[in-house]
Amino acid sequence: MSDPAPPLSRRPGAGPRAAAAIQDAALRLLAERGYTGLTMEAVAQEAGVNKTTIYRWWPSKPALLRAALTDGALLDFEVPDTGSLRGDLVALTERVVVLLTGARTESVVRAMTSGSGTSDDELAMLARDFFADRFSREQPVFRRAAERGELRPGADPMLLLDLMAGAVWVRAVLRRAPLPAGFAREVVDAVLPAFATVPPPGVNT
């Protein structure tokens, strides 16, 4: 069994700043050229590094994009801890709004989700891994809510998140309609009563 990869600061080639530039370049080119048009040579040129540096860290295009999507700064987020399930869900939904409407992130998310969805589609698998990573990171929100008694027994966190994110996606991506201020709160207040033991303030069940 081979030794695990060394920490980023000890890897050969360049340091964390170069790694961040490489990941950022990969996402920019994904948005501009699509997955098939993205090459390691183009990423190296865009980031201003030697191609061999990239290959020392990431052996393939999927490996580089997986790192850029899940660990890169562009799509990173902090898991909220507002003290209530509603507050946390509003914060998460607002993050989805930013991803789908932000000047730097919208085109990346669109490109990431443009795969065919088939089992042998590399881009579709990268998107699957990205959303699985995000769902895993969001689990503390639901653990805390369960401990506070805010979730109904048997409530499905993934369904709850899908309903909220889906509302943003349909409005912003499919309808190309503007998202008014407070849209995230409206979505959460419409969806949450089906999952929560206590309805959001002002919502009748």
UniProtKB/TrEMBL annotation:
Signal peptide bounds: none
One Pfam match: TetR_C_11
Record carries keyword DNA-binding: yes
Domain HTH tetR-type: 16-76
DNA-binding span(s): 39-58
InterPro entries: Cro/C1-type_HTH, Homeodomain-like_sf, HTH-type_TetR-like_transc_reg, HTH_TetR, Tet_transcr_reg_TetR-rel_C_sf, TetR_C
Keyword Zinc: no
Keywords for this protein: DNA-binding, Transcription, Transcription regulation
Protein name: TetR/AcrR family transcriptional regulator
Provenance organism: Streptomyces salyersiae
